[in-house]
Amino acid sequence: MTVPIVKCSVSNCSYWGEQNVCKADLIMIDIDAHARTHLKEEYAGETFDSEHHDYASTSSATCCHTFKPKA
């Protein structure tokens, strides 16, 4: 089984690693408030910006239930 590389720009997460790579053993993603957001990204073969750093205070602000703030 191949382990995917997960990129994350939320730098205050306990699992955030260098070059925006998530270091969590398991990633939990679920449908939440962002599921209905109409983003301006193109999904067909486009690349997304994964080099910026954001700040989140809760997992509900990230679309990622794995998020845990750094101590």
Shape label:
globular
Portion of residues within helices: under 10%
SSE succession? EE
Distance between the termini: 33 Å
Q: How many helices?
A: 0
What is the CA-atom radius of gyration, in angstroms?
13 Å
Enumerate the strands of the largest sheet in spatial order, edge to edge or round the barrel: 1-2
How many runs of DSSP E, i.e. beta strands?
2
What is the strand content? 5-15%
Structural class: little secondary structure
Average pLDDT works out at 75
- The biggest beta sheet, please? 2 strands, antiparallel
* Uncertain segments: 41-47
InterPro entries: DUF1540
Pfam families: DUF1540 (PF07561)
Protein name: DUF1540 domain-containing protein
Structure characterization notes:
The chain is low in regular secondary structure. It is built from no helices and 2 strands. The chain has a two-stranded antiparallel ribbon.
How is the secondary structure organized here?
Layout: E1 16-17, E2 21-22
Antiparallel strand pairs: 1-2
How would you summarize what this structure contains?
The protein is built from no helices and 2 strands. The protein has strands at residues 16-17, 21-22. It holds the Pfam family DUF1540.
Attribute tags:
71 residues, two-stranded antiparallel ribbon, globular, DUF1540, DUF1540 domain-containing protein
